[in-house]
Every structure is written in C-alpha cells, then in structure tokens.
Design a protein that fits this description.
22-stranded antiparallel beta barrel; mainly beta; five-stranded mixed beta sheet
Length: 667
C-alpha cells in the first residue's frame, strides 16, 4: 500500500517479550516514547513531538485498541500487551483512514478475537531482577471457550505484574522507591448469528499504581531525589460493542465505546509558588487529579471486494468530558492538610467527522487514492481557582468551535511486481483550547503568551516512498523521504508563575528519511534494521513564545536506528522435539532537547536486549536480558513539570534486567 506502515505480528511480540508499546522501539525505527513513567508516557512518530508533558493538547499520536480510540488529551494508558494479534504503526496524518485524525500517526493494537472452534487455556509466569536487588514478577492467563461452536465464544485475558523499582529515595530511606504494579483483564465476546455477520463485545480494565517517579536531580556533581514521594495512579476502563456485517452496499463495521480514564499524579512543589508559600524549605506536594469519560462511535462502510473503484466512507462522533482538579497543599509533613491553592476545571468536548477515500486504477501500474476528512470540534470550559485566603479567586467559562477539511492524496506506481513507489500529501489538524488557572493575566490577546486561548495547529506531510520485495519474499527494502510542515505548534510546556500552560511555539519544518531492511536468508534467520534521519526545526518562532529560531522539537532526534536479529530452529532436546529461538535487538537514539526552551539537552542513548526461548509441545521457557550492557543513558522526560526550569533533571534507562518466563498451554 502507498503508506509508511509497519506491522508487528504475534510471533515477533512473543519473541522479544514485549509487554508495553515502548518495547517496540527496537523493532520499529519511526516510533519513540517519552520516559516519564508507567501510565505517564507519550508516543511520537517521526519526531512529531509537542513535548513530554500530557496536558490540554490533543495527542499527536492516536492510539487504538482494535477499532476503539484510547486517548484524546491523555498519556498512553500503557495496556499490557498480553494475547495480542498484531500492532500496526502508520506514520503521518491519518484523518482519511481513522476517526481520531491524529496529526503524527496511528498506533493500532489488535487483540486476538475469540476462537469459535477450539477451547484453550494459556498460562505464563515470569520473574526478573533489575539492577543489584530489585525483583519483579508477572502472571498472565488467557482462556478461550467456544460456548456454541462456530456461533458464540468468549475469551478472557487476566494479568498481574510487579515491576521492581531501581531508584532509591535517600531522603526517606526507601530502597527501590519507584516500584509499580499493573493489574488488568480483558473480556471479549463474539457472536456469529450468520455467515456474513459478527457481533463483538469488549470489556477492558487495568489499574496502575506507581510508588514514586523515576528521575534524578543533578546538582553539584551528584544526584538526589526530591523531598517527597511522587506516586502515580492510572485507572483505565473500556466497554465497547461492534458489528461487522455484509450489506448490499458493502461491508459495514460500526463500533460504539464508553471509556473512563482516571489519572492521579503527585509532584514535589518544595520551593515553588512564592506568592502562596513564602517558606521555601518545608516540603509540600501539588496534586493533579484528572477524570476522563468519552462516548464514541466510529463506523465505516467499505465497498464490495469486486468493486471497480474500491472505496470506503467513515463517520466519527465523540462526546466526553474531562474533569481536572489541582491542589497545592501545605501543613504537617505527610499529612499536608491545608489546601492553599485549588483549580477546578471541567471540559466538555464534542468531535464529529466524516472521512473516507476512493482508489482509482488509472491503468495496470498507476493507482490514485483520493481521501479527505471533514471535521468539527466544539469545546466548553468552566474553571474556578481559589487560594486559602480567597485573594486569587477567579471564575471562567468559555466555548470554542472549529471546522475544517483535511485532504489525503496518494499516487502509486507499481513499476514491477517487486517494485512499488508512491507520492503522497496529507494534512492533519488539532483544535484550539483554553488556558485557565495560575495567577497570570490571560485575558489580553496582545500580551505575551500564555493567552486565554491557544490556537489550533495543522501539519502537512509530504512523502516519496519506494518498496522492493524480492521474488522469493526473503528480502524487503523500503525507503521514504518526507517533509513535515507544522504550523502554530501547540505545546504544554509554557511555564508561568510555576504553573504549566499551553502555547503556540510557532512554525516548524523538517526533512527526513526512513530506511527499512528485512532479510530472511534461510528458514532460520530473520534480520531487520531501521534508520531514520530527521531535521525538524522551528523556522518561524512565535515572538511571544520563549523559543529560538532553528531550535529543534523536544525529543526529536536528528538520527535514530534499531536492529533485530532472530534465529529459530527445530531440534531434539532430551528426546523431545523443540523449537529454539534466540533474538537480539538494539536501538540507538541521537541527542535532542527536553523542552522548546534552550538549555535543556538530552544526550544520545543506546540499549541492547537479548531473548532466548525453548518451546516443546505445550510447554515453553524463555530467558531475557533487557539493557544487557547496563546503560544509564538519559531518556526523553520532563521529570517533574513544575520543577523543570529550576533543576537539572535526568531520567536514566532502567538498569540491566534479567528474567525468566515459563508458559504452559492446555487444549
């Protein structure tokens, strides 16, 4: 197809032992993640990054579970990749394909559907050690039951995971303070009332509890932790129903979902907010509590397989609200019973869009795809702020609307059965929004940022791609040249009075190239490598935003690469036939900036992982070493967003982690 797309199947996921989306960066060179912590991270593709902080702006990368959008303006919920069929990563704006219309790209996690023919139970357990002493463990269970063969079936996934911490909190005398727990389940129900119809129900629940953050403050040649613990809770719930059926017009697929996402974070506020806290010594926290709820329908109608002009049309409607409470606390250490500042904000967001595309076969070799997204966006905000003295009491309400059209055009040339090239141009939008809270005057449109209203932004992506597949299928070469023109870049990294606000940094332009190689010399080896070169720069900075011309986008590196080598063989061990696998993967990421502001630099990093497995019958064993060389290179993270301009914060890689996993299947 005429797109930059990568698909990772279940075999590869199992071989590398991927448990979360950030584990894929060693397999796919175009996607990277911030490293704030479990349940706090953001994905970005091809360096289309607006910073590591997840605030009021719509996520640049859209995340899907099946046909359900997972995020709007929130971090990755970090769903455990248990019983997953495949993961697809599409680069660039995808408004003509998906209802989310994300400007940077789409990541789609496709779980395994219930098998309506055979019952099966899969179990696995693992134990691991990070660094010198920290121990973690995980248990996964997958149960499939065809209640009525070929008609009705259910599939249950359940898991519990503890990730051992690796950062000590010397101030509180706590070892491995950043230990985290993730527990969740997924229930899928499928009903096939007829040969052309399938109805699916999906329920997902996951809770993440992280005891402390994972950054270090560097000062005077040493590193230390903040004065208090910074816990994080991330509770995710999803209920969806979908129908896929054959109609006289084509195949109809419609999914309706209810999504609840509660996110709580505590940060150290010691030494901040002098207007409220003249005591700069006593430790105190600031708490953020976000509750998101969305009802969404995404439907599409696709042409019959024999259509002379293939087409599909989609409709997307989403209505939801985000309730955000911010509390700055003071009082006795550990109790902090006094609330000296409070912000109570309620956002009501409605999105609607129609999208689709048509494929015109110009002749045997030339194909033109024309697509578009027509969208609308409404937001209503009510916010109230107050202090313990009542001196900064403020109330605000406002509403905004935005409509537009985003085209997507692709021209493909099938030069030979083995060689394909394409040209494409696609546009993506994000809507405007409001700033509230803090003490700054946000009312004047002519004052320096932050303003009460931040503008929407748009991204045009132009691509020239080429792909070669050898006649025997053992070699695949792909190359893509791209240009990203990003106007009015939104970011949540503008800090005023120690509060985070959203602003527009200006216009960015960047040129880049991607190269992918997949080689299977025989039935045993699979070799893959990826390289991305990227030069995103701020070419027209907003004069009222603190950014310099030619500054890079935060987290966007000039180069990055990854490789993986997998060996599989069938042999006899202890008199039993067994499949043996050995996989090594590595990633290399160049330096970048942490913020739009200058002076916050992140050095380059590299990481090497090793996995080995033996499968004999229904029993399998695997061992792994993540970060094999025990690198402590820095990663893309803002650490504490309230302290990021006051301290030099560094988030190193998780230390070397050695683990062992055993799995058993019952049929």
């Amino acid at each position: 197809i005429a797109r930059s797309v990568s698909v990772i199947g279940s075999d590869s996921l199992n071989t590398i032992g991927a448990s979360a989306l950030p584990d894929l960066t060693g397999k796919v060179g175009t996607i990277q993640f911030s490293n704030v912590g479990s349940g706090r991270n953001k994905a970005y593709i091809r360096g289309v990054s607006d910073g590591a902080l997840a605030g009021r702006t719509q996520s640049a990368t859209g995340l899907y579970l099946g046909d359900v959008r997972l995020t709007y303006a929130a971090p990755d919920p970090n769903l455990r990749l248990s019983d997953i069929n495949s993961i697809s990563i599409l680069s660039g704006p995808q408004g003509a394909l998906y209802g989310a219309g994300s400007i940077g790209g789409i990541v789609r996690i496709q779980p395994n559907a219930p098998d309506l023919k055979a019952a099966r139970l899969d179990t696995s357990a693992s134990i691991e050690q990070s660094g010198d002493r920290s121990v973690g463990s995980a248990i996964d269970l997958v149960a499939n039951l065809p209640v009525v063969r070929d008609k009705f079936g259910i599939r249950l996934v359940a898991y519990a995971e503890t990730t051992g911490g690796w950062i000590d909190h010397q101030n509180l005398n706590i070892e491995d303070a950043n230990t985290s727990n993730r527990i969740g389940s997924r229930l899928s129900v499928s009903w096939a009332p007829g040969t052309d119809t399938r109805i699916n129900l999906l329920a997902v629940s996951q809770d993440i509890e992280v005891d402390d953050s994972q950054y270090l403050i560097q000062y005077d040649g040493g590193a230390f932790r903040p004065s208090i613990l910074e816990p994080h809770d991330n509770d995710f719930r999803l209920l969806s129903g979908s129908i896929e059926t054959q109609t006289s017009l084509g195949i109809l697929n419609s999914t309706t979902s209810l999504l609840s996402h509660n996110i709580y974070s505590r940060y150290d506020a010691t030494g901040l907010f002098p207007e409220l806290l003249p005591d700069f010594i006593s430790p105190r926290p600031i708490d953020e509590d976000d509750k998101l709820f969305y009802v969404t329908n995404e439907s599409r109608l696709s042409s019959p397989a024999e259509a002379r002009i293939p087409w599909f049309a989609g409709m997307f409607v989403s209505q939801g609200h985000t309730d955000r409470d911010v509390y700055l606390r003071d009082g006795d250490f550990g109790a902090w019973q006094d609330v000296v500042y409070e912000e109570d904000r309620r956002d009501r967001i409605t999105e609607y869009a129609v999208f689709g595309e048509m494929i015109w076969n110009l002749d045997e070799r030339w194909t033109l795809t024309t697509g578009a997204r027509v969208f609308g966006y409404d937001i209503k905000v009510k916010a109230a702020t107050d202090t313990i003295t009542g001196a900064a009491q403020r109330n605000f309400s406002g509403k905004l609307s935005k409509t537009g059209v985003a085209p997507d055009i692709r021209l493909k040339w099938q030069a030979t059965p083995q060689i394909m090239t394409y040209l494409s141009a696609a546009e993506g939008y994000r809507g405007p929004g409001f700033n509230t809270g803090g003490f700054s005057d946000l009312s004047g449109p002519d004052q320096p940022q932050p303003n009460r209203v931040f503008s929407g932004d748009e991204l045009w992506t132009y691509e020239f791609g080429a792909r070669y597949i050898a006649p025997d299928g053992h070699l695949v070469l792909a190359a893509t040249l791209f240009e990203n023109d990003w106007s009015n870049v939104q970011t949540d990294e503008l800090f005023v009075d120690d509060f985070a606000f959203t602003g527009n940094a200006g216009d960015s332009s960047g040129y880049g190239a991607e190269f992918h190689v997949t080689y299977e010399p025989d039935g045993h080896w699979l070799l893959q490598s990826n390289l991305m070169i990227n030069e995103p720069e701020i070419v027209r900075p907003d004069p009222n935003f603190p950014v310099d011309r030619n500054s890079s986008l935060p987290g966007a590196t000039e180069w990055s690469g990854s490789f993986s080598a997998t060996y599989r063989s069938r042999t006899v061990l202890f008199g039993h036939s067994a499949n043996v696998s050995l996989a090594m993967s590595g990633e290399f990421i160049g330096p970048s900036t942490a913020l739009f502001r200058t002076g916050k630099q992140i050095g380059s990093r590299s990481e090497l992982d090793l996995h080995a497995g033996i499968e004999t019958g229904s029993l399998s064993f695997s061992a792994y070493a993540d970060n094999l060389l025990d690198s402590s290179d820095p990663t893309f993270s803002n650490g504490n967003p309230y302290q990021v301009l006051h301290w030099n914060m560094r988030t190193p890689l998780r230390p070397r982690t050695l683990g062992f996993r055993i799995s058993k299947s019952f049929k």
